[in-house]
Amino acid sequence: MLCDLKNRRAEYLRLSVTDLCNLRCQYCMPLEGGPHFGKEKILSFEEITRLIGILSGLGIRRVRLTGGEPLVRKSLPILVEQICSVPGIEEVVLTTNGLLLKDQVQNLKAAGLARINVHLDTLSPEKFHHITRWGKIEQVFEGIKAAIDAGFDFIKLNMVLQKGINDDEVPNMLRFAASQGMVLRVIELMPIGEALTQEDHFISVSQVREKLKQEFTLLPSLSKWGHGPAVYQHVSELKTDIGFISPISSPFCDTCNRIRISSDGRLQDCLAYDGDVSLRDCLRNSRMSDDEISAIIRRRIHFKVEGHGGFLQKEGERTPCMYGIGG
Ligand code: SAM
Ligand code: SF4
After folding, report:
1. Where are the domains of the chain?
2. Domain 2-311: homologous superfamily in CATH
3. What residue's CA is closest to ligand 1, atom 23?
4. DSSP label at 218?
5. CB 311 within 8 A of CB 191
6. Ligand 1 site: residues with CB under 6 angstroms?
């Protein structure tokens, strides 16, 4: 079991399969792209599957594939199938910008993918193009439709709140999500990577919630939506729920149940710090057994940091980017 000094148990893994992306969201990735790890440095499917076997032995039960954009990694459905077949793994889910969903979603479903979160900050084609620097929103809509047609229900729509850019769109995003049987989640902008210098765009979920209350009746939600940090409320008029994720205004570090692995195999105990243990080096060391790697992971997570500290660590200690670690 993975348990730390604060008695938090980790049973959820967020695994980045690539640090590449086909978009350049203004708050995430620089226009020129990142200083990428390169093909040799990222974990192969075989390495990932072995690692998840080890983590399953330590109590990890659910795996979220993320990135960068996970669907730019070739043959992702094969990886999904391999992870699903690891004994002890109960659920494999995906976070995507949706651009490449249309062509891959059938294979992902067949491979055993359980659920999908789609990242969408706006319904406006122009704004989408602006935020992502070149994205075509139609591709996301097509991806969502294809996912629904393939049988994925209760898709979660992740909207990163940006004051003065998209905060006025929450009611319309809510109506859109409800009309498609999806669940909207609004997320506070975290000062990581490109967003480090964008504090002017920060708006808290409570400010958004207060504004929503002028238009909708928000009640406690009776549904159970996964195991994450979102706080859900029911929107009476639309017969839907909305999730509020507040890493900055109301951190949920005390109940953190997750660990992360970056695409180059670094074990991350928190989004706010760069991983200091290379599991890739362990996996590629022919003298290291699964038991030895397991012990390294257990020891490292035992000393998991208490919290993200507002992401305001000293310069060299701060997580460089979301796409590098896996948001
Ligand atoms: N490319 C996929 C996507 O966009 O969903 C998966 C990776 S992305 C890094 C995962 C999530 O991180 C997205 O929902 C994105 O909006 C969010 N994200 C990126 N930078 C963020 C920031 N500075 N603050 C809050 N959320 C952020
Ligand atoms: Fe790409 Fe996701 Fe980052 Fe946007 S948030 S640049 S889609 S990795």
Report:
1. 2-311
2. Aldolase class I (3.20.20.70)
3. 190
4. E
5. yes
6. 21, 27-28, 66-67, 69, 95-97, 119, 158, 160, 187, 189-190, 192, 195, 322-323, 327
